[in-house]
Structure formats: structure tokens, C-alpha cells
Amino acid sequence: MKESYFPQEIEKKWQKIWDETDAFKTYNNSDKPKYYALSMFPYPSGKLHMGHVRNYTITDVIARFKKAQGYNVLHPMGWDSFGLPAENAAMKHGADPETWTDENIAYMTKQLKMLGLSYDWDREVTTCKPDYYKWTQWLFLQLYKKGLAYKKEAAVNWCENCATVLANEQVIDGKCWRCDGVVEKKYLSQWFLKITDYADVLLNDLDKLPGWGDNVKTMQANWIGKSHGAILKFKVVEKDMEIPVYTTRPDTAYGITYLVVAPEYKDIEALTTPEQKAAVEEYRANARKMTEIERLSTDRVKTGVPLGTHAINPFTGEKFPLWTADYALVEYGTGAVMAVPTHDTRDFDFAKKYNLPMKVVIQNPEKPSDCKDEAYTESGVLVNSGEFNGMSNEDAKKAITEKVVKGGFGEFKTQYRLRDWLISRQRYWGAPIPVVYCDKCGIVPVDEKDLPVMLPKDVDFKVVGKSPITTSKSFAETTCPYCGGPARRETDTMDTFMCSSWYYLRYSDAKNSEKPFDKDLVNKWLPVDQYVGGIEHAILHLLYSRFFTKALRDLGLLDFDEPFKNLLTQGMVLKDGSKMSKSKGNTVDPDEIFENYGADTARLFILSDSPPARDFDWSDAGVEGCYKFLNRVWRLIASNSQYITLNYQLSNTLRKDNDDLVRIVHMAIKGITNDISNDFQFNTVISKYRELTNAIYDWQSKKSQPDEEDKNVLSFAIIALIKLMSPVAVHLTEEAWHELGAKTSIHDEPWLEWDENLAKASSITLVVQVNGKVKDKIEVDEALSQDELKEIALNSPKIKELTAGHEIVKVIVVPKKLVNIVIK
RNA sequence: GCUCCAGUGGCGGAAUCGGUAGACGCGUUGGACUUAAAAUCCAAUUGGGUGAAUAGCUCAGUGCCAGUUCAAGUCUGGCCUGGAGCACCA
């Protein structure tokens, strides 16, 4: 065996062998229980970054560990390859987005192989290929037939920079998630998916996911935003009309002093008097011009215009004015709000500014407020509220709504913040939406046998202000599948999140050309047992995928209702305390690390310093330290190779000096197995590799002339170390294993078992406390009874000295651990 | 404003159930080997006090303030700081 560790040489050699022998191929038929380990697939942007390295290493170690534990493991990889960067690159360089994407995939595939990841490449999926997007389109058609995909004219988010619309989830602080450009509102006819039909089940089923972190679950719950309230309808005085409002505070109904409708409210023109028409029109025009950021800023001084009309409060018979103001949102509730300035901070600000009346209806009996300086929004007791006076406001919510229902002017109502998912994109590089428009038949879905609707090649990527796809001469013109007459194709493509909402299902049957996947296979492999990826997808991808799974279950395509059983959201990779980014110039190129230290060092280091869920600070010294450690392990193996036999068996009776090392090995097996099983604490796993290595070196330094028993024990310890390290240092352990004479892969060896009797120290240290402070430590036999431990503690010279002259109030004995003596 | 997460040496972090705080590593310091360097190996490394001392003894210490307990990094209540998400959602 070579004395020195040459990672580059070893790694290339084994990667080639694994590739040639299909070492990581997964077979569908196996008696073993299944385990599906999945990393979020990457966008092929060009090169891997350290975030990818961290993500894929974590999942790879999990996959290898589970395989060694006897599972039939599915561990696939693919490409989320539609999307704007390819199109932007095409515009810049005049290249075809497909060529650009293919080149990136080829390069990144090479990098993934260099990392030694155990993927079954036969199941690779690439979302921009016709054999994949055919099924994305097919699934769209199924959703359409089920009424879950529909087209409507709506106020949508428009990013001028990207020249496309965006889903609500893709607007971050009023800006585009991708380019940071300011998002505007536009009125366009667009395709939506009815995710709101699933709002309640998406919320409730979060309880079925104990394997997800609370942070992700709360983020989803907040996004869905369920609230309980009531619809109240108000009669308009001047017209024969009713205005419904949604409120969570029906208890404040006696305090209404005006009512606000959004500038985009559908009946606003009918509600405006001729005298107010000009002012209202101007206000609405201004609102239209505003960006989302301006419009939604809570700091902004509230503005509004009276419509000139009035409505009646059914509780009091009072007449109050109608206003329009842009603090009312047309998309939420009914687009109209009842205003109670005394008990809502927004209404309060508005009423102050326009000098509108206020009426207190809720009071804290201990500390009554006149609400002259601020709104009182806490709970309290009703006043000025007729028959409800004296009732607590929580009870009044129900009582008042019941009265409303009885009176026929309203109802109980549950409202969600979640909006339908806008999936149209005015871009080229995505899956075309498979519908056509016929003058006679209207919207007509493309016939399934005509899928895929292929992306055209004859397009001009440099076109400005419209989607490149519209420049194709061949694409738009078609015939109607119903009447055969002339028709136009939909030129919008689908949001890339459509493609990524079902890719994990396709891996179960990646090559199926008849269906998106076979039902038996998808039911066999899914749900994903462990999903690993970044927290940035907490809402977007993870919510859409949950929706897709539920919708496809309702379509009868599969039998489970949650796609990801356990979710690990890994932290970011930082350098010098901030996120690695090109603009900050603090990136570390994985290629350089592979070249200088090898993939095993990179894998070891990226797992070593922080638990997976926390942020990880990259340090060059840390990499160096891991490289040195692997060298140290290599030397340990190489310098003892003459003693090592590939045998895990040991005799039961060992001398005390050897017994201790055997115990350390068993403790390491137990500790490492538990640390991986328990939330994948790889940082402590790696510290245990080091402890075991240190222990073997220490033990060895005491053996100048090893006898037969010593050699056996040493061999056992080193073999165990190799196997324990094999999921992380995948190449080093494979090479060492073969150098020691093995003919089969270390990665096919089963995981190690430990003996509970051996996985602990032979004697225990009894900690003796006086009044809770450690005063003495005594080595004792573990078989001793509680009384005997107490006896030993009290008789310790040190303790005798400390307790002399004091009354012993109490003695607490924790078996095998500790004695606490309470004295006065 | 609401929701969630976190706070432990110079640094990353460790500590199943409440039971020896600081594992393991990085860094630093000292030493061995070497003509020298690299590599490797050994030792020290929470702070204060006492001490000739690398011994021993002792006090304090896990963001702050209380509480529960024989015993609190861990449990409870109230704060402070940092991070993340949501936000004119009525």
C-alpha cells in the first residue's frame, strides 16, 4: 500500500470504475425496504457553487448510509432547466438557449461526478427536453379538464425588466425575485391554477408533516393566511345596491363611521355621484400609475376620495359615507372594508386625516380610553352597542354575526390570503401552454396525441418588448382541434415552477414514454423519505409541489397526499460571515478545491463545522485541517496494512488494555449511527471519526511489540474506521479497502452493529456534589447499588472534610452517575 | 406590527432524560525532529484569585432579570440583541 495519500489519482480511478460498473443503479424490484433520498435539483446556471456541494453531499451521505443499512435506495438527479437566464444568455450571445443549457448541464454533470455522488444517472430528468415537458403539458391538460386551470383577466404582477408576469410568490418586497426589478400592476388575461381550492387542506395537512421544521410550516401557514370573520352587507342609500364587506371584527359593527372600497372595485362607477365623478376618476388613474412598492408601503400617508353616496348601518340605522382609498385591496375579501376608526389603526389614521367621525364601542373596563389619540385594538367589553353592551368582544363576534345571519344581511366567512397561482409567462424558454384559440370554439385544449407542443426554433431572441416565441412564423398558426378551422396557439409558456412541481414523481419512472409515470412505481417510491434543499423554497416550490401532489391524487394518478415526508433545509454557505456571491467576490470555486485537495476533503469539510440546518462559514484553514486529517487516516491504515485482515470478528475475552480500544470502537459505531439517524448531525459524526482515529493512535503508541491479540484488535479498529468513514470519504475508503485485499466495494458492505455491553466504558466515574457543586470524582464499579454508591460518596476523605460539622439534610443518588449531598 | 429561529471560550461548535459546561476542530503559544523549511509528533489554551509551581486549592461563568428544583446551557415567566419570513389581508 502506498505510504502517501494521492486523492486526485484515487478519485479519478474510482469514479471511472463506478461509472463503468453502474455501481449506483437502483432497481425497482427488490425485497429490501425502499428509501428515497432527494436533493432539490439545480438550475443549470453554468457551474456548481458551494451551496450545491453542501446540499448534494448531505443527501449523498444519507443515501449511502441508508443503503448500508439495508435499504433499496433511490437517489436521482436532474435539471430544472427552463427559465430566464438561458434566454438572457441567448439574447446576449445570440446562441440558442438549448445549446447554452446543454453545455452547462454537461459541465455540471462532470462536476457532480467529481464530487463522488452516488446517483443513478439512468433516471436523470431534464425539464426542458420534449420527453419531459410533454408530460408537464399533459398534466396541465388534466388540471384544465378538472377545472383547476383557468384563464381570467386580472390585475397581475408585471416585471418590465423580465418582460413577463410573475406569481404572487415571486414578488419579494414589491420586486422581482429574479432581477430585483420593480413590479407593476397590469390588467391582462392570464392562466391560473386553482391552488386556492386546496388552501384548507394545504394548511391542515401541515400537521401530517412532523418531519418538517416548524419554520417552514409556519411560513406556509402564514402564506395561506386563514382568518375567520364575517361578510356584512350594507344597503346603499342613493341606489338600489348592496355592498358586502369582509371583516374579522364584527364585534365593532356599531362603531362603523364610513366605508371604503378599493379604487379597482367593480361597482365603483355606479356608486359615484356625478358631482364626485371627476375627483374619483383622477384618484383611480393615480392609483393605477403607482408601483406595488409605493402602493403597499405602510409608511405612506393614507389618501382617499368620497364617492358622494352613503350606506346604512343595519344595527344602528345610522347613515355613513362611502369612500374610495387605496389602502383597501381589491384582491382580498370583497374589495370593500367597513371602517371603525376607534378600533383599527389604519381606519384611525384615515379618519384623523379627513376628519371623519369616531365612535367608541369597545372598552377595557379597567382603563377606558376615548380613542382620541390612538385606536384601541385590544380585547374588551362592548359599549354603545345596544343589546350587546357589556358582552366581551370575543363573545360578541359570534353573537353579532348570528344576528346578521338571522337578519339576512350577512354570513360567517373563512377567508384565505392565498391567491391562485398565475402560471403564464410571456417568455420563450418554458413549456408552451397547450391550448389554441379558435374564433368559433373559443379556448380549446390541444389533443393529447399531439403533445408535446414543441418550442419553435425559428425565433429572434433579440426582439424587444415581446416574447421571442411570437416572432416564429410557424408556431402560432394552427388549426382548431374541434372544428378544424384556423386557430392561434397560446404563445405564453408555463412558469418553471410547474416543471419542478412534479419532477420528483418522474424519477420513479423516468423513461416512460406512455405516461408521466406508472402508478404502481410512483406509489412504490413516493413519498420522498428525505428531501434536502435550501430554505428559499419554503413557500414557492414546496407549496406548489404539495398542491400538485394533492391535485394529482384527486385525478387518480397516485395514492398519497404529501410528497415529502421529511424535509431538511440546509443553511447557507458563508465566507467571512456573509453569503458567497460573485458581486462580493467571496466565492470559492469547487473545481479548485477538487484539484488541490480532492473531493473527499471537500465532502468532509462541508459537513464538519456546522450542523446541516445552520449556516456554514467556509474557511481555508478548515479545508486544510480536513485534508491533514485524511492524510492522518491514510497513514494509519498504510502503516498497519501488514496486520489488517478483512474481518470484523473478535474474540470475546480480551486483556484489559485491548478491551478499552474495542469499547471505544463500539462507542464510535453507536455514536455515529445515532448522530446520523438523529437529524443528520454530521458535524458530530466527523468529530467522532477524529476521536476514534486519535484513540487508535494513542493505543498504538503504547504497543512497541504487538502480539497476535494486539494485531487482531488493531485490525478490527481500523476496518471499523474505514467502514464508518465510507459514506463521507467515499474514494479514500474504497481505495484503502481494495489495497487491503478486498475484491468488492466498501460501499456494498453492510453498516456496523454495536454491542450494547461493549459500547460503554468498563468503569464509571461517580460525581460527588455537595449542595449541587462538584467536589469529588471517584472511579467505581458500575454494578454497585444506590446504597453502596451513597456509602462510597460519604466516606470519601474530601467529602468527609466538607461535611464535618454540618447536618446532612438529604442525599440524592442518581444510579451510575452522581451523588448529591445536601448539607446545612 | 405579527410569526418563527438563534444567542455557550479568540473562532466554528459539543453537551439523549434537568446531573462533570466547553467534546472535536480551527487559531494561538511553547517544545521535539531537521543544517533549514515543509510535513509530522508532543504539550498548553474560559476568566479571576492564591501559589515558587507545569502541582494543589478556590471563586465566577452558557445574552439579561426573576422563578421552579437537591441540581438549570437545558424547564417556566418577563425582557435584550441578532437573523429569517410575512405585512394597509380589514
Secondary structure layout:
Elements: H1 7-20, E1 34-39, H2 50-68, E2 72-74, E3 78-79, H3 84-93, H4 97-114, E4 125-126, H5 130-145, E5 149-159, E6 164-166, E7 171-172, E8 175-176, E9 183-193, H6 199-204, H7 214-224, E10 226-235, E11 242-247, E12 258-261, H8 277-289, H9 292-296, E13 304-312, E14 319-325, E15 336-339, H10 345-354, E16 362-363, E17 381-382, H11 393-407, E18 410-416, E19 421-422, E20 424-425, E21 435-438, E22 442-445, E23 477-479, E24 486-489, E25 493-494, H12 496-499, H13 503-506, H14 519-525, E26 530-534, H15 540-554, E27 567-570, E28 573-575, E29 578-579, H16 590-597, H17 599-608, E30 616-618, H18 620-639, H19 656-677, H20 682-701, H21 708-725, H22 730-739, E31 764-770, E32 773-780, H23 786-795, H24 797-803, E33 808-814, E34 818-823
Helix pairs in contact: 1-22, 2-17, 3-4, 16-17, 17-18, 19-20, 19-21, 20-21, 21-22
The protein binds one RNA strand of 90 nucleotides through helix 7, strand 11, strand 15, helix 10 and helix 18.
Primary descriptors:
single chain; 824 residues; alpha+beta; four-stranded parallel β-sheet; four-stranded antiparallel β-sheet; 24 helices; 34 strands; 35% helix; globular; RNA-binding
Please characterize this protein's 3D structure.
This protein is of the alpha+beta class. A hairpin with a 3-residue loop joins strand 21 and strand 22. Helix 19 (656-677) runs parallel beside helix 21 (708-725). The radius of gyration is 34 Å and the shape is globular. It binds one RNA strand of 90 nucleotides through helix 7, strand 11, strand 15, helix 10 and helix 18.
